[in-house]
Amino acid sequence: MDRETIIQLFDDELSRRTAAVILDHATRAEQKRKMQLTDFLDPFQQRTADKVMHYFKGLKQVSWGGYASAERVRVLVFPAEEQLSTADVPLAYAAITLSASDAGITHRDYLGALLALGLRREKIGDIIVLPDGAAQVVLHPEIISYVLANLQKVGKYNARVEEVTAESLTIPAGRTREIMTTVASLRLDAVAGSGFGVSRSKMVPVIRAGHVKVNWQSAKNAGMAVKAGDVISVAGRGRIEIAEILGESKKGRIRLLLKKHF
């Protein structure tokens, strides 16, 4: 299947852009018989990468973001005759401590401070915020020196940054709860409201304010349709995954199985 045909299999712009990048990497790996490495991909982009790689039978891939449950990973694409592993995915790690402990600084604050340095999001992996308010960050190796030299503040607090090893990471303990619910429709405001335990009317301004993402992309249209497999996140409240659409209830409502991740 040719390049343009594969790209057109995807129905949204982000997926098509991601597919084009993966196709470029896979084509180079196939032609040069050398490994190729992506920047960090979010889980939605990883799904696209998996679908594209299905068309390259002579290649393999390894995904790694520093620890087994990492959300953002780099994808290593290589000829099938090679023997590569997660150890071959180059990553760097930084620990950030603030001038005040338990300062109420969030993941968004740390990400904002890093992006304010002029860094691109795809060069930054997971940000693990620790109970005392400090953080550990997985980074592209090419930017670690720049971050060490230039990150001086997070929010209003002074920051101290040092390079650390993967072994020093404090791996977050993931918690998941299943929720059985019904909604009148598969609108974003209805599903998000049900998953996060608020009314649809209260969810609408949260969405319009830009605090909600669908599949890691900002979503400001409260009426957009969501589907099975979509992940909806609300700033500061975690995320829900539409695990399964179970059909209609006797009252004509749509039955859903949601997985809530904390």
Q: What does this molecule look like?
A:
- There is one protein chain.
- The model has no long low-confidence stretch (mean pLDDT 93).
- The chain has a six-stranded antiparallel beta sheet.
- Helix 2 (13-32) crosses helix 3 and helix 6 (188-196) crosses helix 7 (200-208).
- The protein has helices spanning 3-7, 13-32, 43-53, 107-115, 144-150, 188-196, 200-208, and strands at residues 36-41, 59-64, 73-79, 92-98, 124-129, 135-139, 153-154, 157-164, 176-183, 212-214, 217-218, 231-234, 238-248, 254-261.
- With 262 residues, it is of the alpha+beta class.
- Strand 2 (59-64) and strand 3 (73-79) form a beta hairpin.
- The chain folds into three domains: 3-82, Ribosomal Protein S8, Chain: A, domain 1 (2-Layer Sandwich), CATH 3.30.1370; 92-168, RRM (RNA recognition motif) domain (Alpha-Beta Plaits), CATH 3.30.70; 176-261, RNA-binding S4 domain (Structural Genomics Hypothetical 15.5 Kd Protein In mrcA-pckA Intergenic Region, Chain A, Roll).
- The chain is built from seven helices and 14 strands.
- The two termini are 40 Å apart.
